[in-house]
Amino acid sequence: MTKIGRIFRRIALCGAFGSMALTAPVRHVPVRPIENRIVAAVSDTVKPLNILVIDGFKKNHVRIDIDATPDIPHGVLVSKIIETGLPNANVYKKSVTVGEDIKKSTDSIVGELFKEIREGKTYDAVNCSTGNEITFPDLSAAMGTVINAENIAKNAKMVKDFLRNCPDEILNKYNSAQNIKSSMEYVNLLDSLSARGTKVYVSGGNNGNYSLNLLSLVDNSICVSSLNNEGKKAFYSSSNSLVNRFEKDNIRIKKVNGGYVLDTGYGDVFVDRKNTTSLCHIPSLRKLRGTSFAPPKALVKDFNSSK
């Protein structure tokens, strides 16, 4: 990680707020292929919801057992929250790369989804629980004006236009221009989906009010941050003026015969012990948490309340 003050990084994929890890013997667990969840239509007149999850599916990020090695992809857990909460919805999955090869990943996903839009494909909602962040001090320095947690909402259009058009040599003074421009391509895509009536759910961010998740700049996005168990803002959660929703994000892990159960809040998800890395069958010592898990919970709550 780079030092705070010069960060442009992904929203932590719950790793910083996941399990306390111990050194233990581990085994290699390959990432399983992406599987969309497709359900049968209830009738000719009642069609299932179409939900799109854009997330990391090709690398393990989330620790379930006690060791320091991740066991499952971040996108799998995010998708399971939606699948358990909306059992009659189609859940489509697109994998993005965070960090290395971000431009290649962006070009692939953005091009593919714009092609779907042109062909008339529609989604009821899209969940993006990853993202890239830029600090407010760096953003202010680049723009030559004060942008902070309090005024970002009223300045969102100006910030979007600046980041889309700013010369690379200016952005590179603060961080990677390529990463910023790639993130803005995602914003353009999600703006297009939002304009067509798709609800767009994004994470507020895990760095408090010091930095901005660029995906929260999406027009009419539902930007969700985290509450703790007492219903108060989680200490790590952003609450800048673009954040318009808070949900509890904790996911409990319990050891069971043959593996582990993750409590999504809407149902249990079983993870076979064979698909975890530790040779010791011991669950992580703390709950999984992070603003990554707040948007899918908000999405489920919204579509259940609209029935």
Describe this structure in words.
This protein has 307 residues and is α/β, with parallel strands linked by helices. 27% of the residues lie in helices and 20% in strands. It is built from seven helices and 14 strands. The strands form four sheets. A six-stranded parallel sheet has the order 5-2-6-8-10-11. The protein has a three-stranded antiparallel sheet with strand order 1-7-9. α1 (74-85) runs parallel beside α7 (294-305) and α2 (102-118) packs parallel to α6 (177-195).
Overall form = globular
Compute the number of helices: 7
Q: What is the H/E string? A: EEEEHEHEEHHHHEEEEEEEH
Coarse structural class: alpha/beta
Low-confidence stretches: 1-16
Fraction of residues in β-strands = 15-25%
Give the termini distance in whole angstroms: 44 Å
Helix content: 25-40%
Q: What composes the largest sheet?
A: 6 strands, parallel
For the secondary structure, the number of strands is 14
Instruction: Please state the CA-atom Rg, rounded to the nearest Å.
Output: 19 Å
Report the mean per-residue pLDDT as an integer. Answer: 88
Which strand order do you get reading across the main beta sheet? 5-2-6-8-10-11
